[in-house]
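wait is this the right file?? whatever heres the structure
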């Protein structure tokens, strides 16, 4: 199944390039034709390049990598923030600070400072131990850091790859990534240099719908890579649990008995013992029944003897008047 269809690309205006007087001759192989002074990009090539970029991003994330989303132009700011947040990846959509990649150690210190400021409760003046003016200065510092570094707040190291919208505007980010040999995935308009990008996607980087569509495709690749990563981690955890919890002795004996068939001869002996026990129980029960029957036969005897003695005692008493 295709990552994106030709119809979606056409409806989003991905095929529109720049004016013919604003172009880079290196992009000639990606141009389909010229119409009304505007270059038309070959979407068949765009589809194939989208598939390559999609697979690269998915595999990178599946193996534990991260993708930084970069797009500071107004058409891309909202899409960059929304899609990067959706998949939990760092992003820059306001201003690229020089050294964000090449001088990340210093940037990381500013991130720690941002987290310290976020821990302060600016509403509770008494508990903070600071004056209102000091809190105001700190709140302004926090707002400034959040605006420029809020998207990379949780980034602990340089990313594995970078997704860039408009490589001409983000030329500083492209230069830093190439200096660190970080793969660059980007939209290439007709005025861009394809040699600066490792995984290029020929398309329109000025239309909001085009930027949103292509950024969503990259975010979908990240999401699929995260799913693959979590599936692999779950399988590893199961293997570890199996190794960490050995079988008990009775379980091993039971499995060994089932495999070797050693427990099969013992079964008849057990059944014989059980049958003997049941026979003893039945014999004891029958003996008890016989004893009860004998007691029942012996109980009326005293009553009969008493009746006989009474009859014999009354007979002489009746003969006395006759004498």
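ok assuming it is, sequence goes like this
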């Amino acid at each position: 199944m295709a990552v994106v269809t030709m119809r979606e690309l056409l409806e989003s205006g991905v095929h529109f390039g720049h004016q013919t007087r604003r172009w880079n001759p290196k992009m000639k192989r990606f141009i389909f034709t010229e119409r009304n002074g505007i270059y038309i990009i070959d979407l068949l090539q765009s589809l194939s390049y989208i598939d390559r970029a999609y697979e690269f991003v998915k595999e990178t994330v599946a193996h534990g990598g991260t993708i930084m989303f970069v797009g500071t132009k107004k058409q891309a700011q909202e899409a960059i923030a929304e899609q990067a947040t959706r998949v939990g990846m760092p992003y820059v959509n306001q201003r690229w600070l020089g050294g964000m990649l090449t001088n990340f150690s210093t940037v990381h210190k500013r991130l720690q400072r941002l987290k310290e400021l976020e821990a302060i409760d600016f509403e509770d003046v008494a508990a903070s131990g600071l004056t209102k003016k000091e809190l105001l200065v700190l709140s302004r510092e926090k707002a400034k850091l959040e605006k420029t570094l809020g998207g990379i707040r949780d980034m602990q190291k340089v990313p594995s790859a970078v997704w860039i919208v408009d490589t001409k505007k983000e030329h500083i980010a492209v230069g830093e990534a190439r200096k660190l040999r970080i793969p660059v995935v980007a939209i290439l308009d007709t005025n861009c240099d394809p040699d600066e990008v490792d995984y290029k996607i020929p398309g329109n980087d000025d239309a909001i719908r085009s930027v949103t569509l292509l950024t969503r495709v990259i975010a979908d690749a990240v999401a699929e890579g995260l799913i693959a990563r979590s599936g692999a981690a779950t399988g590893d955890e199961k293997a570890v649990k199996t190794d960490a919890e050995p079988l008990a002795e009775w379980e091993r004996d039971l499995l060994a008995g089932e495999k070797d068939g050693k427990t099969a001869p013992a079964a008849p002996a057990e059944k014989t013992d059980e049958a003997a026990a049941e026979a003893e129980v039945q014999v004891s029960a029958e003996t008890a029944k016989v004893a009860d029957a004998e007691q029942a036969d012996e109980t009326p005897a005293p009553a009969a003897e008493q009746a006989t003695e009474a009859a014999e005692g009354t007979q002489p008493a009746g003969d006395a008047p006759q004498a």
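The first strand starts at residue 16 and ends at 19. so i think its the right one actually
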